[in-house]
Prior knowledge:
mainly alpha
Amino acid sequence: LCAPFAHDYLRGTLSLAAWQTKYSDLWHAEFNARLRTGRWLQSLLSRPTVADLLVKAGQALPALATYMVQATRG
């Protein structure tokens, strides 16, 4: 994510402040949803009863389990 901005900065076509802003914006666009979903799942999985239900749901619906892994891992 950072390399294109670093390249432009080193070539002198991008200021340090612009590099930081562009990288930060791109990082948040790439990872915020995954992190938010991961925190939500973690809060659910920390409750034994809910965790058991989610594991059973994942066993019954493998596509759901796959989706949740992809939503948090990319």
